[in-house]
């Protein structure tokens, strides 16, 4: 959650627009990744999942955010965690961006059409800009939200914060 330009971690029972709450089961989805393969969130029951939302591909902070996920791929695998990058960019843009960044392990999901539908469902769509918030959502093996943080659009999420949370 952002208050006066600072990010805050939501706690049990808090929500954004009453859609995504710590302790609640996350809204299921099906999205295509940058390789045009369908990803069904429900297929990942039994694993923790990191949903790392970024506003747009081809921007410096978003690139750093996705590269930080790629760099932690081995640790995520060791901890039985699957990480996804998600934005409203169309699949061809995501594909070219993944190639440009050298992303080979992390799947970049397209919430392009209906435009921002999953971000809207999670209460993190910025209507004025037409993009999602920059946010990290972690769900447990039963697909319940255990971590939810929204960052300033100009703030790079701290991957160390995420890995420490996941390792705990």
C-alpha end-to-end distance? 22 Å
Describe the global form. Answer: globular
Which radius of gyration do the C-alpha atoms yield? 14 Å
The helix/strand class is alpha+beta
**What is the CATH top level name?**
Alpha Beta
The CATH architecture is 3-Layer(aba) Sandwich
> What are the low-pLDDT stretches, counting only 5+ consecutive residues below 50?
1-8, 10-18
What's the total count of β strands? 13
Subunit arrangement of the protein: single chain
Question: Which topology does CATH recognise?
Answer: Glutaredoxin
Helix-residue proportion: 25-40%
Which secondary structure elements does this structure contain, and how are they paired or packed?
Blueprint: E1 2-3, E2 6-9, E3 15-16, E4 20-21, E5 30-33, E6 38-40, E7 48-53, H1 60-71, H2 73-78, E8 81-87, H3 91-101, E9 107-110, H4 117-121, E10 125-126, E11 131-132, E12 134-139, E13 145-151, H5 159-167
Parallel strand pairs: 7-8, 8-9
Antiparallel strand pairs: 1-2, 2-13, 3-4, 5-6, 5-9, 7-12, 10-11, 12-13
């Amino acid at each position: 959650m952002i208050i006066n330009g600072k990010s805050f971690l939501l706690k049990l029972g808090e929500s954004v627009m009453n859609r995504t709450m710590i302790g609640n089961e996350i809204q299921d989805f099906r999205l295509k990744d940058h390789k045009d393969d369908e990803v069904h969130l429900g297929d990942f029951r039994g694993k923790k999942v990191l949903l790392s939302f970024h506003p747009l591909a081809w921007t410096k902070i978003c690139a750093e955010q996705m590269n930080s996920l790629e760099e932690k791929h081995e640790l995520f695998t060791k901890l039985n965690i699957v990480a996804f990058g998600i934005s409203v960019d169309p699949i061809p843009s995501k594909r070219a961006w993944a190639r440009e960044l050298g992303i080979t392990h992390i799947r970049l999901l397209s919430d392009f059409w209906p435009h921002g539908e999953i971000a809207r469902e999670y209460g993190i769509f910025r209507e004025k800009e037409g993009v999602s918030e920059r946010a990290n959502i972690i769900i447990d093996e039963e697909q319940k939200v255990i971590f939810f943080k929204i960052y300033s659009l100009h703030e790079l999420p701290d991957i160390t914060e995420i890995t420490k949370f996941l390792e705990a």
